[in-house]
Amino acid sequence: MANKLAISSISISQYPGHLLDEKIRAAAQGGFAGIEIVYNDLETYGKAQNIPIHTAAQQILNLCQSLNVQVLSLAPFENYEGASTPLDQRLAIAKHWIEIARLLKAPYLQVPSIFTHDCSRDEKVIISDLQRLAELGAPAPTVSIAYEALSWGTNCSTWESALDLVNRVNRPNFGLCMDTFHEGTRVWGDNASASGKQMDADARLRDSLARFVRDCPVEKIFYVQLSDAERFDPPYSVTHPWAIPGEAKEFTWSKHARPFPLERELGGYLPVAQIARAWIVEMGFTGWVSMEVFDRAMRDGIVSPEVAARRGVESWRKVKSEMGDRSRL
């Protein structure tokens, strides 16, 4: 398999005392070839150094280059398309993010589908907004927009709706970020069910993956993110200790219970390898694969970035094994 392995900076630690430079060193030591830089991590690093964020970006790029780690993306540029705030304000913020991405030499800006409830449902507005964003990133050095369908997205929550937007936006630097968590929790898993699964989950997932392999052009997969999910015990309800009024149950799930793929000892149970086999092996996808997890145990600083990085690399080894690739374990 030709895929290079990356990891999101927030997936190495969520503890504020573990700064971005420490996380990147841990990722490099663990064997990762790439890093997805979360904007808040970069901002926190800059504040700790008492330097502007543009200077912080240059320092982080220099560090990455010295460690032979490529910056894969700047993430996540949230709640953009169809938002209720004026477009010129959103484009000004987007311009800043793209400037930072260029300073980091990141080829991608990750854009999750909007999940606020006060946004436009007008497809023409959504498409136009996304076209304007892609056009901001188009001049060289190009920053491509990696659009991700969140399983709790307001207008876009499936890969089908994301691919439809990709086709209608119709810009060469606008494509897909595919995440196993969102596929797994949209068509297969259910954290409010005692079984942890939706009705006809296996058939629904099988059909979804078959359609994806048939309908999605491989060149529109910009990169693939891997994540698992824990079964909720007790099942999710409005009285669950993690529940927040008005928050989608999948969003709650995402924030608290996303271990590395196939960490079954931590409760991971999604069919990650089945999804990854379709997206990577069956599609012949040779691009970047990235770990994006949200392990609540990483919030208090007890889990070191080095331990998290080792877990991520071991997770990829297990995924490759279960996908059937034993050539490069």
UniProtKB/TrEMBL annotation:
Which domain of life, per UniProt? Answer: Eukaryota
Q: Which Pfam families match?
A: AP_endonuc_2
- Xylose isomerase-like TIM barrel domain residues are 24-318
InterPro entries on file: IolE/XylAMocC-like, Xyl_isomerase-like_sf, Xyl_isomerase-like_TIM-brl
**Protein name listed in UniProt:** Xylose isomerase-like TIM barrel domain-containing protein
